[in-house]
Write a structure and sequence with these properties.
- The protein has helices at about 1-45, 55-95; strands at about 95-115, 120-130, 135-150, 155-165, 175-190, 195-210, 220-240, 250-260, 270-285, 285-300, 310-325.
- By secondary structure, it is of the alpha+beta class.
- It folds into two domains: about 1-95; about 100-325, Porin.
- The protein has an eleven-stranded mixed barrel.
- Strand 5 and strand 6 (about 195-210) form a beta hairpin.
- Helix 1 (about 1-45) runs antiparallel to helix 2 (about 55-95).
- The termini are far apart.
């Protein structure tokens, strides 16, 4: 109860800051819109200057510009005050959280097997380690059926089985816990010059095993149902070719955010965020590999001494992509 009382002023102040930024942004947008209209208004005046009085061309825009300068100054003051509010409230947030940095290494295999031209199986395993490789972090096996549309979009539904192990300075307890996960996802692609963009939206229905961490033996108490939404955007840039083809080196980067929702979500509506920068090589359309820096910011669901625990996991990932046509 004490934690809720401490949070309310901080949340109210931040909401006020966000509101001020939104209002100031709308005012800047309106100001820019008026400036554009003024430019459009003055262009025909120059072309038809003989048909309009000289004072109309000369003095009306100047009056508007004077008003806009004062309007712009007041808008900038609002933006600066909102930013200052956010900066000043940052220490208050820091007092309600615990940082838990860890070193991790993920070794992943992603396999696609085409059954037909537009239908494929997806088989995936991720060996996730901590320390960076001495200890288990997680074991994830996932599979699904994917349908490929003609426009480059694909849809998939599948199932995953995950085991999460205790690691870091603030584990939930001495025992690992299982998870059954059903998921649905959409993937769509686009290109901007040489940059290939891939967007992935995934919904997950999670069944987490609740373990009695204080029991002398491993005891499964119940299954807890959770919902989670994920969105990932990935950019890939080929280096030695204009497009991805055989014998292509490339660089890639992605960011993925995880949001929990539903009645059983407690502290972590924000579940985690992942960001990575990779260097890869595509041998042919069936074999591709990349590796690089990987960061995972994760919020634990349980509080420790009334404070939220944020894991800042840094390390690397090695990814192998195999496709059977």
């Amino acid at each position: 109860m004490v934690l809720v009382i401490e949070r309310e002023p901080v949340i109210a102040i931040c909401m006020q800051a966000v509101y001020r930024i939104m209002v100031a942004g709308e005012e800047v947008h309106e100001l820019l819109g008026r400036t554009t209209e003024e430019q459009q208004y003055r262009k025909p005046c120059r072309k038809n200057y003989m048909s309009k009085p000289f004072y109309h061309l000369k003095f009306a825009p100047i009056k508007r510009r004077r008003k806009d300068k004062a309007y712009k100054r007041s808008t900038m003051k609002k933006l600066v005050s909102a930013i200052l509010i956010i900066l000043l409230t940052t220490p208050a947030f820091a007092q309600t959280r615990i940082s838990d940095p860890n070193t991790i290494a993920w070794f992943n295999s992603f396999n696609t097997i085409y059954l037909k031209k537009n239908i494929s199986l997806w088989l995936e395993y991720q060996w996730r380690r901590e320390g960076p490789v001495q200890n288990w972090q997680q074991s994830l096996a996932r599979g699904g059926v994917q349908y490929h549309f003609k426009n480059g979009m694909s849809a998939m539904a599948g199932y995953g089985y995950i085991i999460t192990y205790p690691y870091g300075d603030y584990p939930a307890g001495p025992y690992s816990f299982p998870e059954h996960r059903i998921f649905e996802q959409l993937v769509w692609n686009s290109e901007i010059g040489r940059v290939q963009l891939s967007h992935r939206l995934r919904l997950e229905q999670r069944f987490l095993g609740r373990i009695d961490q204080k029991a002398p033996e491993y005891t499964l108490q119940e299954w807890v149902y959770l919902n989670r939404a994920r969105y990932q955007v990935r950019a890939t840039v080929p280096l030695n070719h204009k497009k991805m083809q055989d014998k292509t080196w490339y660089i890639a980067a992605f960011d993925e955010i995880f949001i929990g929702f539903g009645k059983n979500v407690n502290q972590n509506v924000f579940d985690q965020n992942r960001i990575s920068a990779l260097v890869g090589y595509q041998y042919n359309r069936s074999v591709r590999v990349d590796a690089g820096w990987f960061n995972q910011t994760l919020q634990q669901p349980a509080l420790v001494d009334g404070k939220q625990v944020y894991q800042y996991n840094n390390g690397f990932s090695l990814n192998l992509y195999l496709t059977k046509w």
